[in-house]
Amino acid sequence: MDRPRFEVADVFRCYGADYRQKHGASMSVAQRRVMTAIEVCRTAVLGGHLEQCDHCGHQRNAYNSCANRHCPKCQSLARAKWLEDRHSELLNTQYFHVVFTVPEEISTIAYHNKRQVYGILFRAAAETLRTIAADPKHLGAQIGFFTVLHTWGSNLLHHPHLHCVVSGGGLSADGSQWIYCRNGFFLSVRVLSRLFRRLFLEQLCNAFDAGNLEFFSSLESLQDPSAFRNYLAPLREVEWVIYAKRPFAGPEQVLDYVGRYTHRVAISNNRLLDIAEGKVSFRYKDYRHEAQQKTMTLQAEEFIRRFLLHVLPEGFQRIRYYGFLANRYRQQKLARCRDLLDTSQPEPAASKVNSGGRHGEGRLARHFNAGLETPASNRSSRMLSPCSNPFLCRIRRRLIRGDSTLRAA
User: Fold this and answer.
1) Per-residue model confidence as pLDDT tens digits over 32-80
2) Could you give the C-alpha distances from 114 to 100, 143, 310, 370, in angstroms and in order?
3) 183 shares a domain with 234
4) Which H or E run includes 368?
5) Which of 11, 110, 193, 398 could form a disulfide with 406 if both were Cys (CB 3.0 to 4.6 A apart)?
6) 139 occurs within a structural domain
């Protein structure tokens, strides 16, 4: 794939300093770290390493990446490693893709209370799926599923929603049999929506009563309990949108499809069309008009603001596992599922996670850390001298990522 002409890093390098100067007081520490990490990713600031082709021995110098989970350039290896780990967990059964969304009024509260509201979104969605699936009126089984949090729409505005990949069946209560769901049908979306709405609002009110929610600016009046209840009252009457997409064609298609969602960031570099005169243009899908591809142009300041809306709290897990995929008993329960489905464990997928790229018919693999001379073609206009010391390089990487082990040291 050709290298994108424009990158989010270019926007930050050109306009990031002005944004920090104007909005620095309102930026979180996490947002500052993300901006810095993306700006210096794959530049001499982080030092470099030597890559060597395992086919012909060709070598090339390459700069280290920031490894930040919000960086558009640093998700390929993390995604490949995750998919490799998930390959051994596939079962020979149907899988469904279910998406949980929340009303705009909830998104507004979530913007100032990300850790609390996003956590409620995970818990309410998981409890909804487990409860309805375990009910004999619907399925009567313990299902397995994992969930992935996205917080953006195609236009980069704040739109929290949860993608869930759910097994089309599960273990009976006593674990003696595998219970299949109907072919092509998982669970009633309307039933899921009603329970999800109740559970979410209950947990949100509990968080408010415990003093765990904060309100600023136009929402400051919600600090009053009666105002908060009145704000939520209309949401108890409207339908909350949950939709289930068509079942996957087979277990192998699950990973191909899910790989698009697990390590996605708010906007990829491939969607950027132009950066000029203080403006950024990018492609987006207009879902109000049948997902038509359109072009949006924003002031650079607004583009950066929208991108930073989606920086997650530090340490917040955006991929979580439930049911028989929950971490504690995953291996034992997966083994039981395979026995009941009369299938063997899939062979481990061929490892590609150490690859740095391609050269001819071979693959470029990281060989060792090295101090690099700065090539004239490097994109960054703010480069520092390269690291000649691998230890110093690691220290710099930890500083950029805010590594807790460095602070502990």
Assistant:
1) 999 999 999 988 888 888 888 877 888 888 888 888 999 998 888 888 8
2) 16, 28, 10, 39
3) yes
4) strand 362-370
5) 398
6) yes
Q: Residue 100: is its pLDDT beyond 60?
A: yes
- Over residues 142-195, the pLDDT tens digits come to 999 999 999 999 999 999 999 999 998 999 999 999 999 887 777 889 999 999
Residue 59 β-bridge partners? 52
* Residue 250, helix vs strand vs coil: coil
Q: How distant, in Å, are the alpha carbons of 116, 129, 238, 288 from that of 214?
A: 10, 29, 25, 32
Residue among 188, 213, 258, 216 at smallest CA distance from 26: 216
397 with 320, same domain? no
Query: Is there a domain that residue 15 lies in?
Result: yes
The count of other CB atoms within 10 Å of the CB of residue 87 is 18
Number of domains in the chain: 2
Q: For residue 245, what are the domain limits?
A: 89-266+309-341
User: Which tens digits make up the pLDDT trace of 357-366?
Assistant: 555 555 555 5
Question: What is the spatial distance between Cα 132 and Cα 141, in angstroms, rounded to a whole number?
Answer: 9
Which one is predicted more confidently, 394 or 119?
Answer: 119
Same domain, 202 and 334: yes
What's the rounded Cα separation, in Å, for the pair 386 and 389? 9
Candidates 210, 193, 118, 126; CA nearest to 158 is 118
